[in-house]
Amino acid sequence: MSEVESEADEVAESEPDEAEVAEAGRDEIWIEKYRPGTLDEVAGHDDITARLKRYVERDDLPNLLFSGPAGVGKTTSAVAIAKQLYGDDWEQNFLELNASDQRGIDVVRDRIKNFARSSFGGHSYRIIFLDEADSLTSDAQSALRRTMEQFSSNTRFILSCNYSSKIIDPIQSRCATFRFGPIGDEAIAEQTRKIAAEEGIETTEDGVDALVYAADGDMRKAINALQAAAVMGEVVDEEAVFTITSTARPEEIEQMVTHAIEGDFTKARKVLDDLLTNKGMAGGDIIDQLHRSVWEFDLDDEAIVRLMDRVGEVDYRITEGANESVQLEALLASLSLEDE
């Protein structure tokens, strides 16, 4: 056999067939695969995207400040703006920095200024996207304010943060502020059903409801949970979602609280122990679910007020480093004693 034929055989053996390529595609991260490419595709914020589309249509973009919780479309909206403004050249005209990794004043002085100064053609301005801008130090924010003034003729800034109150006032006053709230349940349910259909995954109604509940307004969390649950079996149902996300069912949380309020501390503690030990939930997650679900419980107003007062105190103590199990048991014990 000639060397050419031998090499050809080796190449043929190394190349995957179509079935292998299709199966490999299932390994792709769905939050990236289904990330919206345009503002029209961004779900759950019609009022915000309508205003942003007007900026893009007029090619008249101000400095922007996006604030809101994780997974609600802030970064996606910034990238979509760049893609619609610059087309195929968007990566050359869009600089993305994560301020939580690069928090110092040198980042503002060096990378941002170098990008803002660099020459480019075909567009009147470029975009610098600064993610998690509330992690910048005060000195870095002051330097950024000066940079925004210095390069206002050829650079636009999009700042993304979780808490706009951590952004200094001089920067806030130079930006059009958009506040992204948690994504609505209907939008999350619609998107998860769409992705499931695209991937050929069967979902049940209670499975979709569980995805919506576990996501709590975070689209990224919902899509990640869908992908993880899809690996567990042919059907994504409630059991698969709650297992993969380590989330307690609302009825389990309600049962635990109800037992405590009725004075049966032993039963309440048993439910808590199951959540912490068998389901592996963190104490902070249980507190979050309590806070989210308390108004859906069949409790009178007085009991809800007592519960919320104790939830706030326990949340603070756990945040400060107290033992989660001890604090949660103390919460249940106090509810049981108050009933007596």
From TrEMBL:
* One term of GO molecular function: DNA clamp loader activity
> Keyword set for this entry?
ATP-binding, DNA replication, Nucleotide-binding
SUPFAM superfamilies documented for this protein: P-loop containing nucleoside triphosphate hydrolases, post-AAA+ oligomerization domain-like
Pfam families from the entry? AAA, Rep_fac_C
Q: Could you tell me which residues belong to the region Disordered?
A: 1-25
Assigned protein family: Belongs to the activator 1 small subunits family. RfcS subfamily.
PANTHER family on file: REPLICATION FACTOR C / DNA POLYMERASE III GAMMA-TAU SUBUNIT, REPLICATION FACTOR C SUBUNIT 4
Record note on quaternary structure: Heteromultimer composed of small subunits (RfcS) and large subunits (RfcL).
Name it. Replication factor C small subunit
Q: What is the lineage of its organism?
A: Archaea, Methanobacteriati, Methanobacteriota, Stenosarchaea group, Halobacteria
* Gene symbol of the encoding locus: rfcS
